[in-house]
Amino acid sequence: MIAIYARQSVEKKDSISIETQIEKCQAETGSDATIFVDKGFSGKNINRPEFQRMLEQVRSGKIEKIVVYRIDRFSRSIADFGSVWEVLKENGVEFVSINEKFDTSTPIGRAMLYIVMSFAQLERETIAERIKDNYYARLQNGTWVGGPAPFGFSIKNDKSNGKKVSILQANDDIEIVKKIYLLYMEKEKSLGDIAMRLTEEKIPCGKRKAWDSVAVSRILHNPIYARCDFDLYTYLLTKGIQINGSYKGFDGIHGGMLVGKRDRGRDKYNQVDRQYFSISLHEGIIPSEIWIRCNEKLDENKQVPNNGKGKYTWLSGLLKCQNCGYSLKIVFSKGKKYLVCSGRTNYHICHEKIGVWVEQLELEVQKEIEKTFPKIQISENNLGENELNLTEKVLSIDKKISRLVEAITQSDYVPIQYLNEKIKRLEEEKNLCLTQMGENKKSLNKKQFNFEALTFEEKKIFASEVIEKIMVGNDNAEVQWKI
Q1: CA distance 255 to 227
Q2: What DSSP assignment string belongs to 243-269?
Q3: Residues 223/292/382/442 CA torsion (nearest 10 deg)
Q4: CA-CA distance, 97 to 119, in Å (whole number)?
Q5: Domain range holding 415?
Q6: Number of structural domains the chain divides into
Q7: What pLDDT does 449 receive?
Q8: What would the pLDDT profile of 84-106 be if each residue is shown by its tens digit?
Q9: Using alpha carbons only, what angle is made at residue 257 by residues 251 and 261, rounded to the nearest 5 degrees?
């Protein structure tokens, strides 16, 4: 049997069609040849359905000759063609290219085959290199690198240095992006909560039918929405990302583009030599402080999947099995709430039977809290809320200082004096917060603590702030404090 193979990756005006390839080959073979066609497949590899089916028939001895219009329709890789050519030789199959005018049944035909294949691969690699160079040139110039615009942006044509360029421009959907960031800033909000809310409010999600955690996460991770300032510069620097240009370009106005894949299971971007960030010509939308805080929360949630959002007890997220360490979950039986070990029910690795009722455990933990914190009060003048805000501010300042210190060791482009001045200002701001916190504590310590008067949510927040975890066994429990 004689086989005709035709391939076309993308239809273009100047490319030869599948039909024309077959017609040219049939002029050589006649109309009795069996035709194999791969449409929409690249020639850079041989992972093509009809190509593989043809090879199966070669191995089974059904094909004696393969005819193609041009060698690059068959393969553009010398390595791939070499391996296929060995299969053809083992099964006594001839190979004919109509356009290049050679026949592998002759020595000169085989020599010409390898010469043509070398040039075909050279052409493919040259095109790929040219595309890559253009891609990174657009990135460095701040213009859109190509492809669909991110959610909340449209692509507009503009001029830069007298040349036509593509630039991102915010559209009406950018208000949805702002809403997503503000919602995620709330302590109790998860990706799933936000996705559910957007779907329930029938807010459009581009081409998707509904919002999900992946869509929300993609928006929150993308620095294209951030206003790039020096804080963002140091944040990206400590993540191991290569930054194009000077820190002076981070003016707090423009957004930026990051190219390269990230291993989201790790704290830093993997293959750092292939991660690039560059300031863009479009204006950023989200303040850098909000963008960084959202991404720090995303990192924390990777490490701590259970965020204690349970609605059946204010001890949610803190309860662990004393035997195996797995989380405890609540089950209902005859109107009462019981605790069971997820290591026992989900993974079958634990045999511990928890004999403690939820209400009983809550009462005992409450007694321990009141005994440990006899003089702390969330007062009517919101000193407790103020204390929490100051604590979060101090933690935020510490993170900024850590990033600046790490930037000193990682960057040769930022003057050390400049970094030291910023660290000094942050430390002064931190000291002011600590002083205020000390004054608040003096005021709070004068009043008696009343844990029982707190709401369910306030109890849950307080418990999560002071308790590391509660190890629960068959008939006992141990509170491990953070303090």
Answers
A1: 5
A2: E-S-GGG--SSEEEEEES---TTSSS-
A3: -170
A4: 15
A5: 319-481
A6: 3
A7: 61
A8: 888 888 999 988 888 877 666 67
A9: 140
Contact 100, 68 (CB under 8 A): no
Task: Answer yes or no: do 282 and 389 share one domain.
Answer: no
Half-sphere exposure in the Cβ direction for 318 (13 Å, CA): 27
pLDDT digits (tens, 9 = 90+) for 161-184: 667 778 888 999 999 999 999 999
Task: Tell me the helix, strand and coil percentages in the chain, rounded to 5.
Answer: 50, 20, 35
Map tokens 């403690």 to a residue: 356
In single-letter form, the type of residue at position 127 comes to: I
Q: Are residues 80 and 182 part of one domain?
A: no
Give the β-pairing of 242-243 and 319-321: unpaired
Return phi, psi of residue 377, to 5°.
-145, 135
Predicted local confidence at residue 119, as pLDDT: 63
pLDDT digit string, tens, across residues 389-425: 666 666 667 666 666 666 555 555 666 666 666 767 7
Residue 368 pLDDT exceeds 50: yes
Judgement on whether residues 323 and 293 belong to the same structural domain of the protein = no
Last residue of a domain, one of 248, 267, 302: 302
- 150 domain-assigned: no
Phi-psi region of 135 (alpha: psi -120 to 50; beta: other; left: phi over 0): alpha
Give the strand pairing for 242-243 and 163-170: unpaired
Look up the CATH number of the domain holding residue 117: 3.40.50.1390
Quote the tokens at residue 201. Answer: 């409010």
Dihedral of CA 65/71/74/77: which sign? positive
Query: Do 195 and 297 lie in a common domain?
Result: yes
Q: pLDDT band for position 385 (50/70/90)?
A: low
* pTM, entire model: 0.47
